[in-house]
Structure formats: structure tokens, C-alpha cells
């Protein structure tokens, strides 16, 4: 029980990663695979932000005088995730545009029916 | 069969993750570099938002690379969809008066909010990437609400190019003035926690805001046009 309390955020993030991976492995519809990719990416971002968390921490912003420097959370993971989210959005758009082209070429989004894509 | 193999693979990965997770402490200070940024960021960069000072000052070369990745993704969407021609014109039903007026009323307000977010990136939570995303959401509203309106392609390309150019040229000026490293903060730091402070950080964030906003609205434009 103590383990669960201490690691509940990690378990949530890893749960999202595993759900996304399972969707990508098991679904045959290309749109669902892309949704799985998006969930996986959310899990990874959540995990990186969680790494920087401090118990009873504050945001690393000196918005008013007298804030405790020791209580501030780690800014580096937040800075990494900030750009990763926007890039993830652009990559999602790229994946969707490829899906549009595949649908126009083959007339289906089912990966089983696209002969070259079979595994 | 696929699901069975997938579940076996997931169990193996989950076991590995569980072993790793046990070793990572939660809610403690783990890195020295984050502590250094918090303690010295105020003196080094003059920005009161430490996340901004990490993104645009300590790791700004990295941010230039990330902006380039975003640019490449936008170009990729354009290149993938460019050769595709729709066979019959899609028939657009005109939107109702309430929807039309509502989105024309909200559009400038959302643009203003996005601009506020990226101009105050060094003082409050937010910055160029977030403000750019908010601006792109205003264009989504126009595409969905006021049918038939398009963004100005030439203006969008101009804003994108100017944003990228400003970033690179500021970096080169820093290199020329200081002679030590790329993207040196050569402007005066100003008074801490005011709008005109932190040297080149707000200028770079405004450039990033324009660039991200026009790139994301370009992607939305492409997807709306071709799908």
C-alpha cells in the first residue's frame, strides 16, 4: 500500500504508455493506431513532468518576493515537455495527413487490407 | 493472435518499467542542474519565470532545433497533401447568423489572449509555444464557425519566415557582440519582474509565438482543405 501511495503518479503515466502501446499493437484501423500513438505520447510527457515534482512544491516562477527557492519544482522537465507537446501536435498532423493519402490510394484504412502494410 | 502477442510484449515491458520505477524516488530533488537554474536564473537571465529562462536562454539552441522540427513537420504535411486533388467540390452549408457573429466576435479576443500569453512569457506561465497554439485555435474556430473564410497564405508564410529569421539573427548578433557563444543575451536585463526585462528573451518568445502560430494554422488550413 505504501508503494502504491508513493508511486501512484508513475503508475498512472506508465499505465497510459502501456495502453497506448497496446492500442498500437492490436488495432487494425489506422486512425485508432494514431490515437494510440497520441495516448502513448501523453503518458511519456506525464512521466517526464512527474519526475520533476517536489512534495509541497511551488511553480518555478518568482512572481512575488519571498518565495522559498528550496520549495520550487525542477524547471528542466517542464521546459522539455513544453516543446514536446507542440511538436507532438505537429507530428500527429503529419500522421493524419499520411492516413488521408493512404485512404485515397487504397480506399480503406484497415491495415490488414492494405497489402504492402501487412504484418 | 495479434492481441495475444501484444499482451505478452506488454507484460514484459510493464515488468521492466516496474523494476525501474521502484528505484526512482518520488517528490524529491533529483537533479543538480535544475537547482542551479533556480538559484542563478534570476541573475543570469533576468526572467522571473525559470521555465522560460531554461527554454529561451540556457537551452535556446535546443529550442531552435525544436522549432526546426516543427517547421519540418509543417512542410511535411504540405508536401504529403499538395499533390492530392479533390474530385468534386465539397458543398459547404452556410453557417447560421448566431454562429457566424459569435465566432467573428471571439476571433480577435482569442488572438489577443494568445498575444498576451507569448508577450508575458518571461513573467507568467506561458510563452511562445503556448501562445502560438492559442492563436492556431482561433483559426480553427474561424474554419469551423465562419465557413468559406481562409487564412492569408502569403501573410502566414511571411510571419513564419520573419519569426525564424528573428530568432537566428538575434543569435548571430549575440555571437558578434559577445564573441563567446550563440544566442548571448546582449540587451540590458532591465528591472526584474517587469514587462521590459530579461534582454532578448521576450523578443525571441514573440518570434517563436508568431512562428508556431502561423505554422499550426498552416497545418490546420492544409488538413481542412484536403480532407
Unreliable stretches of chain B: none
Number of domains of chain A: 1
Helix/strand/pairing class of chain B, anyone?
A: mainly alpha
Tell me the fraction of residues in β-strands of chain A, as a range.
Answer: under 5%
Helicity range of the residues of chain B? Answer: over 70%
CATH class of chain A: Mainly Alpha
- Count every helix of chain A, treating DSSP H or I runs of 4 or more residues as helices: 3
Q: What's the architecture of chain A in CATH terms?
A: Orthogonal Bundle
Rounded average pLDDT of chain A: 83
Whole-number mean pLDDT of chain B:
83
Helical content of chain A (DSSP H or I, runs of 4+): 55-70%
What does the overall shape of chain B look like?
globular
Largest interface (CB within 8 Å) is between:
A-B, 48 and 65 residues
Question: In terms of per-residue confidence, which ranges of chain A show pLDDT below 50 for 5 or more consecutive residues?
Answer: none
* Count of extended strands of chain A: 0
Specify Rg of chain B, calculated over alpha carbons.
22 Å
What distance lies between the first and last C-alpha atoms of chain B, to the nearest angstrom? 34 Å
Largest sheet of chain A: none
Number of helices of chain B: 8
Describe the structure concisely.
The complex is a heterodimer of chains A (119) and B (227). Chain A is mostly helical. Chain A has a single domain, classed as Helix Hairpins (Orthogonal Bundle), CATH 1.10.287.
Q: How does this structure look, described?
A:
The complex is a heterodimer of chains A (119) and B (227). Chain A has a single domain, classed as Helix Hairpins (Orthogonal Bundle). Helices cover 66% and strands 0% of the residues of chain A. Chain A has helices at residues 2-26, 30-51, 75-106. In chain A, α1 packs antiparallel against α2 and α2 (30-51) packs antiparallel against α3 (75-106). Chain A is elongated and about 65 Å long. Chain B has one domain (2-226). In chain B, α6 (128-145) runs parallel beside α8 (201-226). The radius of gyration of chain B is 22 Å and the shape is globular. At the A-B interface, α1 and α3 of A face α1, α2, α3, α4 and α6 of B.
Amino acid at each position: 500500500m505504501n508503494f502504491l501511495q508513493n508511486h501512484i503518479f508513475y503508475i498512472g503515466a506508465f499505465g497510459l504508455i502501456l495502453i497506448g502501446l497496446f492500442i498500437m499493437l492490436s488495432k487494425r484501423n489506422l486512425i485508432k493506431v494514431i490515437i494510440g500513438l497520441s495516448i502513448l505520447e501523453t503518458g511519456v510527457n506525464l512521466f517526464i513532468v512527474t519526475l520533476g515534482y517536489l512534495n509541497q512544491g511551488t511553480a518555478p516562477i518568482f512572481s512575488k518576493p519571498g518565495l522559498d527557492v528550496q520549495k520550487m519544482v525542477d524547471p528542466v522537465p517542464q521546459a522539455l515537455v513544453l516543446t514536446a507537446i507542440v511538436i507532438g501536435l505537429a507530428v500527429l498532423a503529419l500522421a493524419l495527413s499520411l492516413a488521408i493519402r493512404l485512404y485515397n490510394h487504397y480506399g480503406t484504412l484497415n491495415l490488414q487490407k492494405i497489402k504492402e502494410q501487412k504484418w | 493472435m495479434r492481441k495475444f502477442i501484444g499482451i505478452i510484449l506488454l507484460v514484459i515491458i510493464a515488468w521492466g518499467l516496474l523494476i525501474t520505477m521502484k528505484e526512482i524516488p518520488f517528490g524529491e530533488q533529483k537533479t543538480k542542474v535544475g537547482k542551479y537554474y533556480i538559484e542563478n536564473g534570476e541573475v543570469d537571465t533576468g526572467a522571473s519565470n525559470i521555465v522560460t529562462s531554461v527554454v529561451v536562454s540556457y537551452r535556446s539552441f535546443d529550442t531552435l532545433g525544436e522549432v526546426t522540427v516543427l517547421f519540418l513537420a509543417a512542410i511535411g504535411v504540405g508536401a504529403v497533401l499538395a499533390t492530392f486533388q479533390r474530385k468534386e467540390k465539397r458543398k459547404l452549408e452556410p453557417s447560421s447568423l448566431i454562429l457566424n457573429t459569435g465566432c467573428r466576435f471571439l476571433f480577435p479576443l482569442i488572438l489577443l489572449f494568445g498575444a498576451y500569453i507569448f508577450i508575458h512569457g518571461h513573467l507568467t506561465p506561458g510563452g511562445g509555444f503556448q501562445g502560438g497554439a492559442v492563436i492556431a485555435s482561433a483559426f480553427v474556430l474561424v474554419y469551423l464557425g465562419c465557413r468559406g473564410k481562409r487564412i492569408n497564405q502569403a501573410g502566414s508564410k511571411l510571419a513564419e519566415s520573419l519569426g525564424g529569421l528573428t530568432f537566428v539573427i538575434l543569435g548571430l548578433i549575440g555571437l558578434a557582440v559577445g564573441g563567446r557563444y550563440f544566442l548571448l543575451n546582449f540587451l540590458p536585463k532591465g528591472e526584474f519582474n517587469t514587462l521590459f526585462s530579461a534582454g532578448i528573451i521576450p523578443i525571441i518568445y514573440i518570434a517563436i509565438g508568431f512562428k508556431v502560430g502561423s505554422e499550426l494554422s498552416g497545418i490546420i488550413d492544409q488538413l481542412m482543405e484536403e480532407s
